[in-house]
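Renewal narrative, Specific Aim 1. Our central claim is that a sequence can be written position by position from structural information alone. The example that follows is taken directly from our test logs and has not been curated for this report. It begins with the C-alpha cells describing the chain, in the order in which they were read.
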C-alpha cells in the first residue's frame, strides 16, 4: 500500500557510530511500523532506532541559586536533519553589589536601571562624616567598656561577696573596739557621782567619803577591789551591790546587818547579828532584843542554833522573848517575858514549831500556862 503524498519518510541522519540506518524489512513490515509512529516523535537519547524529523537530546539547564540574581538565557538547540549536539549553555554572569552612592560603570546602564528600581523603596543611608564617625567610635568604646565591666562582675561575684563579708566583719570589730576605747579612756565617762542606797544605821555620807578616791576614774576602770576594802571597815554592812550608770554615776546598794540579840560581856552588852558580829555595844541592855546565853560562846554551834530559832519565830512571839538558852544544838529553851518557858529542842523543823507555838499562845495565853513543849510539834504539850 502506498503512503499518501507528503508523508514520505525523511532522510535518516547517520547514527553516532557512523552506521547507516537499517533498511526496511521485507514485506513492508518496517513501513507499517513507521506508519504508526507520529511524525514528530523522537527516539530516546542514546537509542539505535530510526528518528523522525527534528529529534534532539534533552536540554540541561543549571539550577538558579539565590545568591546569583542574574542568569543568562539558554539558547534553544535547533538540529533539523543534522547530528545530535551536546547541551549548550551560556556562562552565568553575576553583578557585584555596589554602594548606594557609587556610579554604575560604562556599558552597564541596564544593570544600573535595574538596581535603582530594586532599591527605590529602601531608605538611603546618610553619608559618613568625620563627626559621625567620631560619635560612633565613642559610642562603640563606651559599649565595649560597659560589656567588659559586666563580664568582670559576672566572673568575680564570689570574690566580691567574700570581700564584702570581710569588710563588714572588720568594720564591726573596729567600731566595737573604738567604742570600748572611747568608753574606757574618754573623760566623758569619768565617775562624778557616788549614790549610796539602803543605809539606816550607817551614815550615807560616811560611805561616800570612804569611796571618794574613785572620783574622776572612768567607769570601766573603777577599782572594785578597793571599794570592797573601803566598805569592809563598816561592820554593819552585811553585803553590797554596785551599779554603774553612764555617763558618770556609781550606785552602791548596801544591805545592813540585822541584830538578833544581845550577848553579856564583862563591860556590858553587845548587840550581835546571826553571825555574831557586834553591831553595837553599851553598858545597858537594849530593849526588844533577847539575851542569848550560849555557854560555848559566840560563834559556837549552840549560838548558831539559838539565832536560827530567833529568826524562825513570828514577830509577835519575838517581841515577848526574854532569854534564849542553848547549851547544845539539841537543847534550845526560850523564856518569855511573862515567865513561861518554851521547850524547843533542836533547830530542825523550826518553821513548823513556830507555827504550832503561835497557835498555842493564842489558845492558851502566856500566864495561863507555865511551859509550852514543841520539841515534837506533832504532839505539843502544855504544862
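The sequence written for that structure reads:
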Amino acid at each position: 500500500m502506498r503512503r499518501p503524498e507528503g508523508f514520505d519518510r525523511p532522510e535518516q541522519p547517520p547514527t553516532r557510530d557512523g552506521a547507516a540506518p537499517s533498511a526496511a524489512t521485507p514485506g513492508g513490515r518496517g513501513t507499517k511500523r513507521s506508519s504508526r509512529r507520529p511524525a514528530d516523535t523522537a527516539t530516546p537519547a542514546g537509542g539505535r532506532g530510526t528518528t523522525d524529523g527534528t529529534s534532539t537530546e534533552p536540554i540541561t539547564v543549571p539550577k538558579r541559586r539565590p545568591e546569583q540574581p542574574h542568569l543568562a538565557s539558554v539558547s534553544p538547540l535547533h538540529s533539523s536533519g543534522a547530528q545530535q549536539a551536546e547541551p549548550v549553555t551560556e556562562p552565568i554572569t553575576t553583578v557585584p553589589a555596589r554602594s548606594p552612592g557609587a556610579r554604575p560603570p560604562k556599558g552597564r546602564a541596564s544593570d544600573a536601571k535595574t538596581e535603582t528600581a530594586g532599591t527605590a523603596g529602601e531608605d538611603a543611608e546618610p553619608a559618613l562624616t568625620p563627626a559621625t564617625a567620631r560619635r560612633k567610635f565613642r559610642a562603640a568604646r563606651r559599649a565595649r567598656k560597659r560589656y567588659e565591666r559586666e563580664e568582670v562582675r559576672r566572673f568575680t561575684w564570689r570574690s566580691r561577696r567574700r570581700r564584702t563579708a570581710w569588710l563588714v566583719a572588720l568594720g564591726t570589730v573596729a567600731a566595737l573596739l573604738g567604742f570600748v576605747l572611747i568608753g574606757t579612756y574618754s573623760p566623758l565617762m569619768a565617775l562624778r557621782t557616788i549614790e549610796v542606797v539602803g543605809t539606816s544605821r550607817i551614815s550615807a555620807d560616811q560611805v561616800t567619803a570612804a569611796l571618794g578616791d574613785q572620783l574622776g576614774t572612768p567607769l570601766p576602770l573603777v577599782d572594785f577591789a578597793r571599794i570592797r576594802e573601803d566598805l569592809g571597815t563598816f561592820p554593819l554592812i552585811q553585803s553590797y551591790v554596785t551599779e554603774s550608770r553612764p555617763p558618770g554615776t556609781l550606785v552602791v546598794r548596801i544591805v545592813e546587818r540585822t541584830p538578833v540579840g544581845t550577848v553579856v560581856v564583862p563591860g556590858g552588852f553587845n548587840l550581835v547579828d546571826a553571825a555574831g558580829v557586834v553591831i553595837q555595844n553599851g553598858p545597858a541592855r537594849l530593849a526588844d532584843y533577847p539575851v542569848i546565853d550560849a555557854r560555848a560562846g559566840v560563834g559556837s554551834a549552840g549560838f548558831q542554833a539559838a539565832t536560827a530559832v530567833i529568826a524562825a519565830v513570828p514577830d509577835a512571839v519575838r517581841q515577848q522573848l526574854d532569854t534564849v538558852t542553848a547549851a547544845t544544838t539539841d537543847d534550845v529553851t526560850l523564856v518569855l517575858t511573862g515567865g513561861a518557858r518554851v521547850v524547843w529542842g533542836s533547830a530542825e523543823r523550826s518553821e513548823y514549831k513556830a507555827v504550832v507555838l503561835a497557835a498555842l499562845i493564842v489558845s492558851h495565853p502566856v500566864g495561863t500556862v507555865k511551859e509550852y513543849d514543841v520539841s515534837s510539834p506533832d504532839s505539843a504539850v502544855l504544862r
